[in-house]
Amino acid sequence: MFYKRTVQYYETDKMGVVHHSNYIRWFEEARTYYMKNNGVDYNTVEKECGVMMPVIAVDCRYKQGAVYNEEVSIETEVSFFNGIKLVFNYKVYNSEKTLLVDGSSTHCFVDMSFKPVRLKKTNPDLYSRLNLLLKEDA
Amino acid sequence: MFYKRTVQYYETDKMGVVHHSNYIRWFEEARTYYMKNNGVDYNTVEKECGVMMPVIAVDCRYKQGAVYNEEVSIETEVSFFNGIKLVFNYKVYNSEKTLLVDGSSTHCFVDMSFKPVRLKKTNPDLYSRLNLLLKEDA
Amino acid sequence: MFYKRTVQYYETDKMGVVHHSNYIRWFEEARTYYMKNNGVDYNTVEKECGVMMPVIAVDCRYKQGAVYNEEVSIETEVSFFNGIKLVFNYKVYNSEKTLLVDGSSTHCFVDMSFKPVRLKKTNPDLYSRLNLLLKEDA
Amino acid sequence: MFYKRTVQYYETDKMGVVHHSNYIRWFEEARTYYMKNNGVDYNTVEKECGVMMPVIAVDCRYKQGAVYNEEVSIETEVSFFNGIKLVFNYKVYNSEKTLLVDGSSTHCFVDMSFKPVRLKKTNPDLYSRLNLLLKEDA
Q1: CB B21 to CB C20 under 8 A?
Q2: Nearest to C85 by CA among C123, C41, C121, C55
Q3: Residue A138, pLDDT above cutoff 90
Q4: Per residue in D20-58, pLDDT tens?
Q5: For D66, phi and psi rounded to 5 degrees?
Q6: How far apart are the CA of A86 and the nearest CA of chain B, in angstroms?
Q7: How confident is the model over D3-30, as pLDDT tens digits?
Q8: Nearest CA in chain B to A13
Q9: Is A28 exposed, middle or buried, given 0-12, 13-18 or 19+ CB atoms closer than 10 A?
Q10: What's the whole-model pTM score?
Q11: How far is Cα C24 from Cα C14, in angstroms, rounded to an integer?
Q12: For residues A84 and A109, is the Cβ–Cβ distance under 8 A?
């Protein structure tokens, strides 16, 4: 499952490549796209399930800088899920399939008052759908 | 009333100067600083008065690009206020007092449900304090 | 010529809608897309013609906030061009064709040392291709 | 060595707290401030030494979200340096000294053509000054 997007001018910095903070934003774009295309629209998770998935950790390794105007492809996978914690892995490639960046984001689950929830108990349907992501990829 | 800040690396783009969208964010920083130092903390406006000041227009003219690591000074003035609409003017200078950018932002007043309010009627105290900004500068 | 994109979480602010500075960035995305699809790839302009098009003015009027996850469409037109100055107009719509934001950006033309150039003389081919944009839309 | 700054509106997202990508940018602000105040102005490193310090990895753990308008303090330390690689650690606190976020960034050293350099050999003076940061903190 690849998410594609074009590098924008405002994402570059004076080094001439994409500023390292922007890949963390691309991870979010890729994660949202991946979830929506696998039956778990994040907007619906917030609006209908009343659950938010705040990021509790990210890490990112930069191998080569993406440059202005190139199309990058981001691969997203779920590497861990237990109803309390969810981990996504990302790989960013350029059009020649060179790996530019890889990283991960770890999420917990809270209600709209930021109180932690155990999905298996509070939102069993959402739990099942997220669990399918894990089964497919891990 | 000058707000000072240092140009960050992540604000530059591959042209080697600050990306034009960032000055709009600096206007916000300068406006917040100006208001706080003139008796109208914007955070309090939202939290205690229940009023938000969404931006309904901005304009910006770029004369010279700010460069990485330089300290810029932003002057803020209120040029119009009638309880329904509020206009701020901004001037961004570098350390040699060269004018880099000038612009303005226009704001309306809404309650937390985005319903327009007439401050003179709904929030007379806030109206008075904002009116002082106009009297001082215009 | 519409450019479409989905509103990202990182583009919203605590007011629950897209932060006003981000529309300026969307204008850039839409302009780049419009140019590329009308025979003037901006990346090529910089790399092959040695010409940059810095923004010398922007203005933006906000009618309604874009919200997380919705798809917006941005219409771009060229309203002025004379080889020294170029003006783009933008209209941002949501999926129900409601106009959310309109604005414009004004550009000049400089060489890689930021020295102004008169395209008609220095880059007649680029001049002709940009002039076609004007003829098509204005 | 603490770097202080106020949380801006444009840094929040619809969750009502600072978007997680922005802490990576704060790390950069804190690192630049720390270096400048310890005798190694990064701007000078690029301009006079001809050396850039691209980020090759970041990681970040989010414990509590920073909120609009609060003042945060960021502590920076150097935990590793050998002339080829440099690691900074960061801790972000709110005004009540609660730890909100911690993380690190790893940098390499390259010349203006992105070719890796060994500072001890190519820039012994810069090597010595950076080594002092390590001695002070690690």
Answers
A1: no
A2: C55
A3: no
A4: 999 999 999 999 999 999 999 999 999 999 999 999 999
A5: -75, 145
A6: 29
A7: 999 999 999 999 999 999 999 999 999 9
A8: B13
A9: buried
A10: 0.96
A11: 19
A12: yes
Q: How far apart are CA A11 and CA D21, in angstroms?
A: 13
C98, C99, C102, C101: which is closest to C89 by C-alpha? C102
Categorize the per-residue pLDDT at C138 as very low, low, confident or very high, splitting at 50, 70 and 90: low
- What is the torsional sign of CA A8, C107, B17, D29? negative
Q: How far is C23 from chain D (nearest CA, A)?
A: 13
Do residues D34 and B51 make contact, with C-beta atoms less than 8 angstroms apart?
A: no
C16 vs D contacts (CB less than 8 Å): 14
Q: In angstroms, rounded to a whole number, what is the distance separating the alpha carbons of residues A12 and B14?
A: 6
pLDDT in tens, A23-43: 999 999 999 999 999 999 999
pLDDT given at position B1: 75
Q: What is the DSSP letter of B25?
A: H
Based on the number of CB atoms within 10 Å of its own CB, is D96 exposed (0-12), middle (13-18) or buried (19 or more)?
exposed
CA neighbor of C45 nearest in space, from C134, C137, C136, C107: C107
Interface of A with B in 72-131 (CB under 8 A): none
Q: Which two tokens stand for residue C86?
A: 């170029």
Structure confidence at residue D138 (pLDDT)? 54
Question: A10 and B16 in contact by Cβ < 8 A?
Answer: no
Distance, C-alpha C101 to centroid of its chain:
13
Report the candidate in A86, A102, A77 with the shortest Cα–Cα distance to residue A2. Answer: A77
Q: Can you tell me whether residue A17 is helix, strand or coil?
A: coil
How far, CA to CA in Å, does A10 sit from each of A120, C23, D133?
Answer: 41, 12, 33
Question: Which residue has 């997380």 as its token pair?
Answer: C68
The confidence band for C41, taking pLDDT boundaries of 50, 70 and 90, is very high
- In the sheet with A99-108, reading across from the earlier edge strand, the strands are A2-6, A71-81, A85-93, A99-108, A55-62, D55-62, D99-108, D85-93, D71-81, D2-6
ipTM of this predicted structure:
0.95
Residue closest to A26 by CA, chosen among A79, A102, A96: A102
Residue at token pair 């950069």? D28
Q: Is the predicted pLDDT of residue D1 greater than 80, yes or no? A: no
Note whether C68 and A43 are within 8 A (CB): yes
pLDDT digits (tens, 9 = 90+) for B64-101: 999 999 999 999 999 999 999 999 999 999 999 999 99
Strand partners, A116: A110
DSSP readout, C20-36? Answer: HHHHHHHHHHHHHHHHH
Cβ-Cβ contacts under 8 Å, A55 against chain D: 20, 62
Taking 60 as the threshold, does the pLDDT of residue A82 lie above it? yes
